Amino acid sequence: MLTRQMLKDAQSEIERRIELRMREEAGRLPDHALASGQYLDHPDYKQRGLYGTAATIHILARRATTDPVVKDRISKLLYYVVNRGQVEKASVSGVVYRDLVARRVRLQKSDVFRMADIGFAISQVSPVVPLRSEALTLVHQALEDARTEPAGYAVGSEGGSPNPLATAHALRCLAANNLPARPEDWRYLREYVSGGSDIYVRCFALSVLATYDPELERRELQLCWKEMFSALAGEFGGQSEANHEYTRYGAQDYVRVPWQLYLIQSCARLFPLTRFVGFSVQAKMMDVAQQISAPDGFKYEASGGHLSTRTYACVWQAIDEILTFNFKQPLPRVFVRTVSGATRVFSSQLFGALTYTILVAVAVGSLIEWLNTPGHSYGDLAPNLLVEVMLVILAGLRHQVRRRGHRR
């Protein structure tokens, strides 16, 4: 069973790895700037950018109010965001900057996924931290430039068709920072969650709606979650994420979608007393937390052999939401164990075999007794038929539990 201590231990390990990465980054940039890269466990890989920097801000932000060292680091990370072009130009050779870095910096400052990640991280930063407002202004402008008509957001400032994943990222960023968003954009996202073509994108969009939608339709979102979980039940027991690819100015780019984490986050919001404490969801989140705390860390092997800074920030957010929303007033352990145990019993092969055996025995016994009773009538079968109906319902319930992935 998932526990508060297990989640807190995982958060502590995430912070430890981030701290180590920050030490490795020290000295690579001017003294007044800090940035982070794609990986937590690859010190020789000197790439740095907005995804890694956003993840680091997100994880460290809340400590900035009590730890002056962390506050200084957050300020330096924000300085990098606001002055990235100048910092990179001062950190690499003129040839490297001209041929490799300049174009990347120019494109990424108008990339909705990266800038929305930065903005979402900033929502965790105290207003007293220097350069917070300047960085948020840059983010807000980037999102405004990517708005499409009549609704939604494109992947960048160059415009184009609305992208549902970019829209979800933009709306999460705006809502987390208490910035206004158009009702049409929320409506666009709701419609995509209900019937969009990419189920992995829908997982993230659902988590955004479950947390931030100002006109939350809980019942509708619950139905969407059930449908998505049923469709992805075969993949949920494994360990996988999805890639969302897009093109800007002729260059291919992508953003990872750790959809299993997003399904867990949505479940925690939409089914806090039922499905969230069921075996399947609990086991998956326990597995993530335990891998985070293990020496080898948590990774999606298909996406590479190193620990992703952004993935760790996604895990951090999932843990933080669970601790805040689901563990704020912990349920009695007996209730959690009862629900979790019941899902395992209903999904077991022994329960299924016992149910069908009793069903056949009742049917045969009822028929024999009825035939041997003088003056028998069909009405005599009613009580036993009622028992058989109840057993059929139990068998159907077991089938639904197994089909929806309550057994790994």
Explain this structure:
The protein folds into two domains: 4-337, Glycosyltransferase; 348-403. Helices cover 64% and strands 3% of the residues. It contains 17 helices and two strands. The chain has helices spanning 4-25, 50-60, 68-82, 84-91, 94-108, 112-122, 132-145, 164-176, 183-195, 199-212, 218-236, 259-270, 279-293, 309-326, 333-347, 349-371, 382-403; strands at residues 242-248, 251-257. A two-stranded antiparallel sheet has the order 1-2. The two termini are 15 Å apart.
Attribute tags:
2 strands; Glycosyltransferase; 408 residues; disordered C terminus; two-stranded antiparallel sheet; single chain; mainly alpha; 2 domains
